[in-house]
Write a structure and sequence with these properties.
With 228 residues, the protein is mainly α. The chain has 2 domains: 1-54, Homeodomain-like (Arc Repressor Mutant, subunit A), CATH 1.10.10.60; 55-225, Tetracycline Repressor, domain 2 (Orthogonal Bundle). Helix content is 69%, strand content 0%. The chain is built from 11 helices and no strands. Helix 4 (56-81) crosses helix 6. The longest helix is centred in the first third of the chain and has 26 residues, at 3-28. Residues 34-53 bind DNA. Keywords: DNA-binding, Transcription, Transcription regulation. This is AcrR family transcriptional regulator.
C-alpha cells in the first residue's frame, strides 16, 4: 500500500471519528462524549480508535478547535459580504443557534476531567475569532483613540495584565480598549448563550429583533466611549 493511499485512508477514518463524536455530542451533550461509544458506533475497538486519537483529551481538543475555526470562518464570511460589528454579531448568533451542541462544547460548562492545552490549538482558534470582532469593532479608530477609551479606572495591576496579553486578537489593543471589548463580548456572548440554551424561548420568534436592538445599543455605547 502506498504512503499517499495510507494517508488518505487515515484522513478519512479520522474524519469519520470526528463526525461520530459530533453526532454523540448532539445526542448526549458534550459531557456524554465517550471514546467507547464513538468506537462502538463505528464498529471499531477502542484500541483501534487510539491509533487516531491517543486520548479523550486529544479528541476533545480537535473537536473544540474545529468548532472555533468553523465559527470564525462563518463570521469572516459574513463580514466579507457586509463589514461591521452587527453582521459579525449576527453571524455569531446564527452559528450558535444552528450548532447549539458544539456551541455548548466551546462555551458551556467545562467538561469534567478535560483541560485544554495552554496556548495550543484551541487558543489559536479562539484568537482568530476574537481578531474578527476586534477589527470590526475597533478598526476605524487609531491606537491613540483606543488608549483613551472611556472605561472605569483600571488599577495598575489590571492595566499591566491587559497590556501584556499576547497578540493576535485583544492582545493588539491598549488596556482601556481591552476592558471595553471584554464588556462588549460579555453582553454579546451572554445574550447568545441565553438564546442558544433556550432561556429566552418565552420571547419566541422575536428573539432576533431583541438581539439586533441589543447589538445596536452596544455599538452606540462603544462609539460614545471612544473619543474623536
Amino acid at each position: 500500500m502506498s504512503s499517499p493511499l495510507r494517508q488518505r485512508r487515515r484522513t478519512a477514518a479520522t474524519r469519520e471519528i470526528l463526525d461520530a463524536a459530533r453526532e454523540q455530542i448532539g445526542v448526549s451533550g458534550p459531557a456524554g462524549l465517550s471514546l467507547r461509544s464513538v468506537a462502538r458506533s463505528l464498529e471499531m475497538t477502542v484500541q483501534a480508535l487510539y491509533h487516531y486519537f491517543p486520548s479523550r483529551d486529544e479528541l476533545i481538543t480537535t473537536l473544540i478547535t474545529e468548532a472555533y475555526l468553523d465559527l470564525a470562518e462563518t463570521v469572516e464570511d459574513a463580514v466579507a459580504a457586509a463589514p461591521g460589528f452587527i453582521p459579525a454579531a449576527t453571524a455569531f448568533r446564527a452559528w450558535a443557534i444552528g450548532n447549539a451542541p458544539m456551541f455548548q462544547l466551546i462555551y458551556g460548562t467545562p467538561l469534567p476531567h478535560y483541560e485544554a492545552p495552554d496556548n495550543g490549538r484551541t487558543t489559536d482558534a479562539s484568537r482568530r475569532l476574537a481578531s474578527v470582532f476586534v477589527r470590526e469593532l475597533f478598526g476605524p479608530y487609531a491606537p491613540e483613540q483606543l488608549a483613551r477609551a472611556d472605561v472605569p479606572p483600571l488599577s495598575a495591576a489590571l492595566r499591566d495584565r491587559l497590556d501584556d496579553l499576547p497578540p493576535p486578537g485583544i492582545g493588539t489593543l491598549p488596556a482601556p480598549a481591552v476592558a471595553l471589548f471584554v464588556s462588549v463580548w460579555g453582553h454579546l456572548h451572554g445574550l447568545v448563550t441565553l438564546e442558544a440554551f433556550g432561556h429566552t424561548a418565552f420571547i419566541g420568534p422575536l428573539q432576533a429583533e431583541l438581539f439586533q436592538g441589543a447589538m445596536q445599543s452596544l455599538l452606540a455605547d462603544v462609539r460614545r466611549r471612544i473619543p474623536a
